[in-house]
Inverse folding.
């Protein structure tokens, strides 16, 4: 079934996923705004890369921070939009009228939580460019991204089997 022929239903999402949407929006708006407001005070060289121990090992222009913030906002906006139109996503199985609610629900949950992990990741990277020590948040966001993807894919496969 092509994306155009798929059922256009909005799955119900739980309160935790709704809260994740709000936290992602607040974190992204506040973090990006704070990063841009403080931008004029940056020195000519800022840390743009850190090794596994959290020590800065790459330096660059503050313009790189503006690019990072732009990428952050674009990714969060794109994932938020995709989470609201689950019928256009690619799935591992054929989408039918019977399995669409389960597949869409699992996909929306995965995208919303992935978006939160990405917001935390980018927020921690921006904060580190200002000298804050948030390596642990960066590590958790990276690990969380992998866990969210694996759990989301497993949930979609299970939803397809359950409702087929």
């Amino acid at each position: 079934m092509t994306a155009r022929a798929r059922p256009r239903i909005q799955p119900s999402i739980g309160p935790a996923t709704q809260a994740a949407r709000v936290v992602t929006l607040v974190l992204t708006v506040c973090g990006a705004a704070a990063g841009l407001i403080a931008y004029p005070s940056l020195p000519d060289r800022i840390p743009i890369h850190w090794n596994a121990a959290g020590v800065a090992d790459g330096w660059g222009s503050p313009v790189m921070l503006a690019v990072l913030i732009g990428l952050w906002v674009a990714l969060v906006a794109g994932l938020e939009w995709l989470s609201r139109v689950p019928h256009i996503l690619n799935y591992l199985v054929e989408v039918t009228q019977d399995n669409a609610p389960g597949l869409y629900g699992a996909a929306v949950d995965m995208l919303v939580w992935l978006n939160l992990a990405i917001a935390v990741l980018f927020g921690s990277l921006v904060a580190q460019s200002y000298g804050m020590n948030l390596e642990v948040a960066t590590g958790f966001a990276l690990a969380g991204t992998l866990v969210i993807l694996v759990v989301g894919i497993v949930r979609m496969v299970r939803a397809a089997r359950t409702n087929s």
Q: What stands out?
A: The first strand starts at residue 46 and ends at 50. DSSP finds four helices and two strands in the chain. Residues 100-129 form the longest helix (30 residues). The chain has one domain: 15-162.
